[in-house]
Amino acid sequence: MIHAPSLAIGAGIASVAIIVAFLAFNIFNNSPQLVTEPTPTIQESSQAKITAATFLENGSPVLGDPKAPITLVEFGDYQCFFCNKFFHETEDSLLKNYIETGKVKVIFKDFTIIGADSSTAANAAHCASDQGKFWEYHDTLYNHWTGENNGWASKDNLHQFARELGLDIDEFSKCMTESKYAQSIVKSNQDAKDLGLTGTPAFFVISPDNKVTKIGGAQPYDVFEKIFNSQLEK
Fold first, then answer.
1. What is the total count of domains within the chain?
2. How far apart are CA 216 and CA 167, in angstroms?
3. Helix (H, G, I), strand (E, B), or coil: what is residue 185?
4. Domain membership of residue 33 as a residue range
5. At what angle do helices 116-129 and 134-143 cross, to 10 degrees?
6. What pLDDT digit, counting tens, does each position of 128-148 carry?
7. Model confidence pTM above 0.85
8. CA terminus-to-terminus distance, the chain
9. Residues in Cβ contact with 177 at an 8 Å cutoff, skipping those fewer than 6 apart
10. Each residue's pLDDT tens digit, 66-117
11. Do residues 142 and 84 make contact, with C-beta atoms less than 8 angstroms apart?
Protein backbone atom coordinates (compact mmCIF):
# COMPACT_ATOMS: atom_id res chain seq x y z
CA MET A 1 0.00 0.00 0.00
CA ILE A 2 1.36 3.41 -0.95
CA HIS A 3 -0.25 6.44 0.64
CA ALA A 4 -1.55 9.41 -1.28
CA PRO A 5 0.95 12.30 -1.49
CA SER A 6 1.53 13.92 1.85
CA LEU A 7 1.06 17.60 2.49
CA ALA A 8 3.22 19.84 4.63
CA ILE A 9 2.03 20.87 8.07
CA GLY A 10 0.09 24.07 7.62
CA ALA A 11 0.15 27.07 9.85
CA GLY A 12 -3.28 26.13 11.11
CA ILE A 13 -1.96 22.91 12.60
CA ALA A 14 1.09 24.50 14.12
CA SER A 15 -1.08 27.01 15.91
CA VAL A 16 -3.58 24.55 17.37
CA ALA A 17 -3.96 25.36 21.04
CA ILE A 18 -3.85 21.95 22.66
CA ILE A 19 -2.75 21.88 26.28
CA VAL A 20 -3.46 18.68 28.17
CA ALA A 21 -2.31 17.79 31.66
CA PHE A 22 0.00 14.85 32.17
CA LEU A 23 -2.27 12.27 33.76
CA ALA A 24 -1.59 8.66 34.69
CA PHE A 25 -3.39 7.13 31.71
CA ASN A 26 -4.19 3.46 32.12
CA ILE A 27 -3.10 2.08 28.77
CA PHE A 28 -2.37 -1.49 27.86
CA ASN A 29 -0.94 -2.39 24.50
CA ASN A 30 -3.62 -4.01 22.32
CA SER A 31 -6.30 -3.39 24.95
CA PRO A 32 -9.65 -1.99 23.78
CA GLN A 33 -9.62 0.54 26.62
CA LEU A 34 -10.03 4.14 25.46
CA VAL A 35 -9.45 7.21 27.59
CA THR A 36 -10.70 10.70 26.82
CA GLU A 37 -9.22 13.60 28.75
CA PRO A 38 -10.59 17.17 28.67
CA THR A 39 -8.35 20.20 28.45
CA PRO A 40 -7.28 20.97 32.03
CA THR A 41 -6.72 24.32 33.67
CA ILE A 42 -3.86 23.39 35.99
CA GLN A 43 -0.42 22.06 35.10
CA GLU A 44 1.49 20.51 38.00
CA SER A 45 5.07 21.75 38.04
CA SER A 46 6.37 18.30 38.98
CA GLN A 47 4.86 16.74 35.90
CA ALA A 48 5.95 16.81 32.29
CA LYS A 49 4.51 19.78 30.43
CA ILE A 50 2.22 18.57 27.66
CA THR A 51 1.53 21.08 24.91
CA ALA A 52 0.53 21.06 21.26
CA ALA A 53 4.19 20.46 20.40
CA THR A 54 4.15 17.17 22.28
CA PHE A 55 1.70 15.84 19.72
CA LEU A 56 2.59 17.73 16.57
CA GLU A 57 6.34 18.32 16.50
CA ASN A 58 9.27 15.95 15.88
CA GLY A 59 7.15 13.81 13.61
CA SER A 60 6.29 13.16 10.00
CA PRO A 61 4.82 15.47 7.39
CA VAL A 62 1.05 15.52 7.57
CA LEU A 63 -0.76 12.86 5.60
CA GLY A 64 -4.03 14.25 4.27
CA ASP A 65 -5.60 17.68 4.20
CA PRO A 66 -3.89 19.99 6.74
CA LYS A 67 -7.30 21.57 7.31
CA ALA A 68 -8.98 18.27 8.22
CA PRO A 69 -10.96 18.73 11.47
CA ILE A 70 -9.53 15.67 13.23
CA THR A 71 -5.85 14.90 13.83
CA LEU A 72 -4.68 11.33 14.39
CA VAL A 73 -1.21 11.06 15.96
CA GLU A 74 0.40 7.64 15.89
CA PHE A 75 3.46 6.70 17.94
CA GLY A 76 5.11 3.68 16.35
CA ASP A 77 8.24 1.60 15.92
CA TYR A 78 8.95 0.17 12.47
CA GLN A 79 10.07 -3.14 14.00
CA CYS A 80 6.91 -3.48 16.13
CA PHE A 81 4.70 -6.51 15.41
CA PHE A 82 1.47 -4.77 16.38
CA CYS A 83 2.40 -1.61 14.46
CA ASN A 84 2.79 -3.78 11.39
CA LYS A 85 -0.51 -5.48 12.17
CA PHE A 86 -2.27 -2.09 12.35
CA PHE A 87 -0.68 -1.02 9.09
CA HIS A 88 -1.84 -4.09 7.18
CA GLU A 89 -5.24 -4.62 8.78
CA THR A 90 -6.59 -1.15 9.57
CA GLU A 91 -4.66 1.73 8.05
CA ASP A 92 -5.79 1.27 4.46
CA SER A 93 -9.47 1.55 5.40
CA LEU A 94 -8.78 4.67 7.47
CA LEU A 95 -6.92 6.13 4.52
CA LYS A 96 -9.78 5.56 2.09
CA ASN A 97 -12.67 6.54 4.35
CA TYR A 98 -11.29 9.37 6.46
CA ILE A 99 -7.93 10.67 5.25
CA GLU A 100 -8.52 10.86 1.50
CA THR A 101 -11.97 12.35 2.17
CA GLY A 102 -10.52 15.26 4.14
CA LYS A 103 -11.95 14.30 7.52
CA VAL A 104 -8.76 13.21 9.26
CA LYS A 105 -5.09 14.12 8.95
CA VAL A 106 -2.30 11.92 10.29
CA ILE A 107 1.07 12.51 11.92
CA PHE A 108 3.44 9.62 12.63
CA LYS A 109 5.87 9.96 15.53
CA ASP A 110 8.72 7.66 16.45
CA PHE A 111 8.85 5.65 19.66
CA THR A 112 11.86 3.46 18.97
CA ILE A 113 11.81 0.95 21.82
CA ILE A 114 12.63 -2.40 20.20
CA GLY A 115 16.23 -2.15 19.05
CA ALA A 116 18.97 -0.23 17.26
CA ASP A 117 17.44 -0.93 13.84
CA SER A 118 14.28 0.85 14.98
CA SER A 119 16.12 4.15 15.26
CA THR A 120 18.02 3.56 12.02
CA ALA A 121 14.77 2.84 10.17
CA ALA A 122 13.16 5.92 11.67
CA ASN A 123 16.07 8.07 10.53
CA ALA A 124 15.78 6.55 7.05
CA ALA A 125 12.10 7.50 6.83
CA HIS A 126 12.95 11.09 7.70
CA CYS A 127 15.80 11.06 5.18
CA ALA A 128 13.26 9.98 2.57
CA SER A 129 11.08 12.87 3.74
CA ASP A 130 13.84 15.25 2.64
CA GLN A 131 13.05 14.06 -0.88
CA GLY A 132 9.29 14.24 -0.44
CA LYS A 133 8.72 10.54 0.14
CA PHE A 134 8.25 10.01 3.86
CA TRP A 135 4.97 8.15 3.56
CA GLU A 136 6.10 6.04 0.63
CA TYR A 137 9.15 4.99 2.64
CA HIS A 138 7.03 4.46 5.76
CA ASP A 139 4.85 2.06 3.77
CA THR A 140 7.88 0.33 2.28
CA LEU A 141 9.28 -0.37 5.74
CA TYR A 142 6.09 -2.03 6.93
CA ASN A 143 5.73 -3.93 3.67
CA HIS A 144 9.19 -5.42 4.21
CA TRP A 145 8.70 -6.20 7.91
CA THR A 146 9.71 -9.75 8.85
CA GLY A 147 10.12 -9.56 12.61
CA GLU A 148 11.90 -7.83 15.46
CA ASN A 149 15.68 -7.45 15.61
CA ASN A 150 16.29 -9.97 12.84
CA GLY A 151 18.12 -7.70 10.40
CA TRP A 152 15.46 -6.81 7.85
CA ALA A 153 15.95 -3.11 8.69
CA SER A 154 19.74 -3.21 8.26
CA LYS A 155 21.47 -0.21 6.73
CA ASP A 156 22.05 -2.12 3.48
CA ASN A 157 18.36 -2.95 3.21
CA LEU A 158 17.33 0.60 4.07
CA HIS A 159 19.48 1.86 1.20
CA GLN A 160 17.94 -0.71 -1.12
CA PHE A 161 14.46 0.48 -0.19
CA ALA A 162 15.57 4.02 -1.05
CA ARG A 163 16.79 2.86 -4.46
CA GLU A 164 13.49 1.10 -5.13
CA LEU A 165 11.67 4.37 -4.45
CA GLY A 166 13.93 6.27 -6.83
CA LEU A 167 15.57 8.44 -4.17
CA ASP A 168 18.84 10.23 -4.76
CA ILE A 169 21.12 7.71 -3.06
CA ASP A 170 24.00 10.12 -2.50
CA GLU A 171 21.71 12.51 -0.65
CA PHE A 172 20.04 9.67 1.24
CA SER A 173 23.39 8.12 2.22
CA LYS A 174 24.70 11.45 3.52
CA CYS A 175 21.59 11.86 5.64
CA MET A 176 21.97 8.34 7.00
CA THR A 177 25.71 8.63 7.69
CA GLU A 178 25.17 11.86 9.60
CA SER A 179 22.18 10.41 11.50
CA LYS A 180 20.59 13.71 10.58
CA TYR A 181 17.35 13.09 12.46
CA ALA A 182 18.77 11.42 15.57
CA GLN A 183 17.88 14.31 17.85
CA SER A 184 14.39 14.63 16.41
CA ILE A 185 13.83 10.92 17.09
CA VAL A 186 15.13 11.31 20.65
CA LYS A 187 12.73 14.21 21.19
CA SER A 188 9.84 12.19 19.77
CA ASN A 189 10.71 9.35 22.13
CA GLN A 190 10.66 11.81 25.01
CA ASP A 191 7.26 13.08 23.88
CA ALA A 192 6.00 9.49 24.04
CA LYS A 193 7.38 9.06 27.54
CA ASP A 194 5.91 12.38 28.67
CA LEU A 195 2.54 11.09 27.49
CA GLY A 196 2.99 7.97 29.59
CA LEU A 197 3.47 5.53 26.73
CA THR A 198 5.17 2.21 27.36
CA GLY A 199 4.41 0.37 24.12
CA THR A 200 3.55 0.73 20.46
CA PRO A 201 1.45 1.48 18.62
CA ALA A 202 -0.37 4.18 20.53
CA PHE A 203 -2.70 6.79 19.09
CA PHE A 204 -4.07 10.16 20.10
CA VAL A 205 -7.15 11.51 18.36
CA ILE A 206 -7.41 15.30 18.61
CA SER A 207 -10.98 16.44 18.04
CA PRO A 208 -12.11 19.70 16.40
CA ASP A 209 -12.57 21.17 19.90
CA ASN A 210 -9.06 20.02 20.89
CA LYS A 211 -10.01 17.26 23.28
CA VAL A 212 -7.78 14.22 23.16
CA THR A 213 -8.77 10.57 23.01
CA LYS A 214 -6.05 8.01 23.62
CA ILE A 215 -6.19 4.62 21.89
CA GLY A 216 -3.82 1.91 23.01
CA GLY A 217 -2.67 -0.87 20.73
CA ALA A 218 -3.51 -2.13 17.25
CA GLN A 219 -7.24 -1.62 17.52
CA PRO A 220 -9.56 -2.67 14.68
CA TYR A 221 -11.07 -0.24 12.21
CA ASP A 222 -14.43 0.04 13.97
CA VAL A 223 -12.80 1.52 17.10
CA PHE A 224 -11.39 4.42 15.08
CA GLU A 225 -14.59 4.71 13.07
CA LYS A 226 -16.69 5.11 16.20
CA ILE A 227 -14.45 7.83 17.63
CA PHE A 228 -14.10 9.74 14.36
CA ASN A 229 -17.82 9.68 13.65
CA SER A 230 -18.73 10.81 17.15
CA GLN A 231 -16.40 13.77 16.83
CA LEU A 232 -17.54 14.70 13.34
CA GLU A 233 -21.15 14.74 14.50
CA LYS A 234 -20.55 17.40 17.15
1. 1
2. 34
3. helix
4. 20-232
5. 150
6. 999 999 999 999 999 999 999
7. no
8. 32
9. none
10. 999 999 999 999 999 999 999 999 999 999 999 999 999 999 999 999 999 9
11. yes
